[in-house]
Write a structure and sequence with these properties.
Elements (H helix, E strand, L loop, with lengths): L2 H22 L2 H12 L10 E6 L18 H7 L4 E7 L5 E10 L2 E6 L5 E6 L13 H13 L2 H9 L8 E5 L2 E5 L7 H4 L10 H5 L10 H6 L7 E7 L3 E6 L13 E6 L3 H9 L5 E3 L3 H7 L6 E6 L3 E7 L9 H10 L2 H8 L5 E2 L23 H10 L6 E8 L3 H16 L3 E8 L1 H10 L5 E7 L5 H8 L14 H11 L8 H15 L3 E5 L1 E6 L2 E2 L2 E2 L11 E2 L1
Parallel strand pairs: 1-10, 1-11, 3-21, 15-16, 15-17
Antiparallel strand pairs: 2-3, 4-5, 5-7, 6-7, 8-9, 9-10, 11-19, 12-19, 13-17, 13-18, 14-18, 20-22
Helix pairs in contact: 11-13, 12-14, 16-17, 17-18
């Protein structure tokens, strides 16, 4: 070993020792931090690294893979590129946010839409390179899009929302020209290319690991990156941490300001808060509302709270459960909930109330907007009696252990009020790693708390995901033929078309009456910073590390 290497090791050991001492000062939180310390890289204290604490688990590196959970979507954002991206804007509060109104080049340097809107032709950057140095070609884009529309599940339906449904629609005209042919003109196609799903994969690398039984290399891409994004994945320890390393030769944008971003999974909200307060992590992502409310007054911390567009926290009665097949029972639930207490206790007033609407007929097409329900136990009891269920029934109320910060207090309050009308709700806690499968993929939970935010900011897009039967976020197994028809008719229709607004108002009126999803409040995303700057909010509510800087 050279003297330089010895000196470097001594410095690294000193950094880790210093970090350990700082974390373990005070016995109240020391034990909870020990798992964090076991995998803390020696570089965590250095000036070119940002450490981020999250409360959920990253379960795959492949957004197209069946069962990949939402926290994993951040890998698609940071380690892969798309043809286009949304721009950035400054919020009225002085923070950074994605700009839905602006599309910017990423892998594509330009694009052209035909006069009839049925063909979009992209010219790729001539200097585009994947992480391994191989060129990005239209053939890679074609393979990646074919994969996304073929594997099934959420990614395939997401592509379908933008009228991207069949491999035959995608053509590699030459190495640097890619063309999409559409069955009809759609307002969603171009913005749908900027969401996390349509990543461009290094098909040359992926195909080396494909097999007859796995032609899309899902097993390889589950654990390995084959992208061109601003970061590579230097290390992934499932259930513990993911380490991003800057791609020094990123060709789709300016290289990130920080060399490493360590995303550390810390299930305990109390530990995440302590780590942030002490400066041992520079960011706590998706902070509980309680912590955000209390820490927002501290001078040495910055708490960003951003309302999530097109998103609602809600209670979902599953229509597979016989009592909930009667809409009067679902309406009884909607009148029984303690909305104000839920908002104050679970949301700490951060977000926007979604109850107390003054009319059962919407006045406009704003979405989300307040549902026409409030707390009225008398009316709830009358509806149960009309449905022949005045004696009540029992039902499990399911929550995710990875979202207990809001779900658990909400469930306790809901349980108490439902008991007042004879409904005995038993709280069922499901591990976070199994939640998506149970609630959304298999849709087997009789009554559950749920959240969904539509990536493309239109009411018809929210309905496409949350109210169309069989679609992922329709956790209630709801089906209504008129809703299905109206959603199909409005999804691709221009907003200024004279038929658009009346159809949207009708859709809202139907789901207010039938309440397969009982709205609670519109959530906000809380991100705490202590030693990092330039955080940018994105609609997908996942970490975009590309803009981060070390304070």
């Amino acid at each position: 070993m050279s003297m330089n290497k010895k000196a470097q090791d001594q410095q690294n050991n000193s950094e880790v020792s210093t970090t350990r001492r700082r974390m373990l000062q005070g016995t109240a939180i020391g034990a909870g931090m020990l798992p964090f310390l076991k995998v803390l890289p020696a570089s965590a204290a250095s000036g070119d690294t940002v450490v981020v604490a999250i409360g959920q688990t990253i379960n795959s590196l492949d957004i197209h893979r069946s069962g990949t959970n939402r926290p994993s979507y951040q890998v698609a954002v940071n380690a892969y590129d798309r043809l286009v991206s949304f721009g950035t804007k400054t919020t009225p509060e002085g923070g950074l946010s994605y700009d839905y109104a602006t599309l910017e080049p990423e892998i594509a340097e330009s694009w052209e839409v035909s006069e009839d809107g049925l063909t979009i032709t992209f010219k790729l950057r001539a200097d585009g390179k994947f992480h391994d140095g191989s060129p990005i070609t239209a053939h890679d884009v074609k393979w990646s899009f074919d994969r996304a529309v073929t594997l099934g599940g959420f990614p395939t339906v997401q592509m379908k929302a933008g009228s991207l449904a069949k491999p035959e629609q995608f053509e590699a005209v030459d190495d640097l020209t890619f063309r999409i042919t559409l069955p009809h003109k759609s307002k969603l196609t171009l913005p749908d290319l900027a969401v996390p799903v349509p990543i461009v994969i290094n098909s040359k690398l992926a195909l080396k690991h494909a097999t007859k039984d796995d032609p899309w290399a899902t097993e390889y891409l589950h654990k390995n990156i084959a992208g061109s994004g601003a970061f590579t994945v230097a290390r992934w320890d499932p259930g513990q941490q993911l380490v991003y390393q800057r791609n020094e030769k990123w060709t789709s944008g300016k290289a990130p300001a920080v060399a490493r971003v360590i995303v550390r999974e810390v299930p305990s909200a109390a530990t995440r808060r302590a780590l942030l307060e002490r400066g041992d992590v520079q960011m706590s992502f998706n902070m509980p509302n309680k912590d955000a409310s209390e820490l927002s007054t501290k001078k040495d911390l910055v708490v960003n709270t951003t309302p999530v567009e097109n998103a609602i926290y809600c209670l979902c009665p599953n229509l597979k459960f016989e009592p909930f097949q009667d809409k009067r029972v679902r309406q009884a639930l909607a009148w029984a909930l303690p909305y104000q207490a839920l908002f104050e206790t679970s949301a700490y007033g951060r977000g926007k109330p979604m109850w107390g609407g003054k009319s059962a007929v919407p006045k406009d097409i704003a979405w989300p907007q307040a549902f026409p329900y409030d707390t009225d136990l008398t009316k709830a009891g009358e509806l149960l009696e009309q449905a022949g269920m005045s004696s009540g029934f029992e039902v499990p109320l399911s929550i995710s252990l990875s979202q207990t910060d809001w779900m658990e207090p909400a469930a306790l309050l809901i349980q108490e009020n439902l008991g007042k009308i004879g409904i005995k709700a038993t709280i069922n806690k499901i591990p976070g790693a199994s939640w998506r499968t149970a609630s959304l993929v298999e849709k087997r939970l009789d009554l559950s708390l749920e959240t969904f935010g539509g990536w493309l900011n239109y009411p018809c897009y929210y309905f496409f995901w949350a109210y169309v039967h069989g679609h992922l976020f329709n956790a209630s197994n709801y089906r209504n033929e008129e809703i299905e028809k109206l959603t199909e008719e409005t999804l691709h229709l221009a907003v200024d078309d004279p038929d658009y607004a009346p159809k949207i108002r009708r859709m809202i009126e139907i789901v207010w009456d039938e309440v397969p999803r009982i709205a609670l409040w519109q959530p906000a995303l809380n991100v705490g910073l202590n030693g990092a700057t330039d955080y940018e909010f994105w609609f997908h509510r996942q970490l975009d590390a590309r803009s981060l800087k070390k304070a």
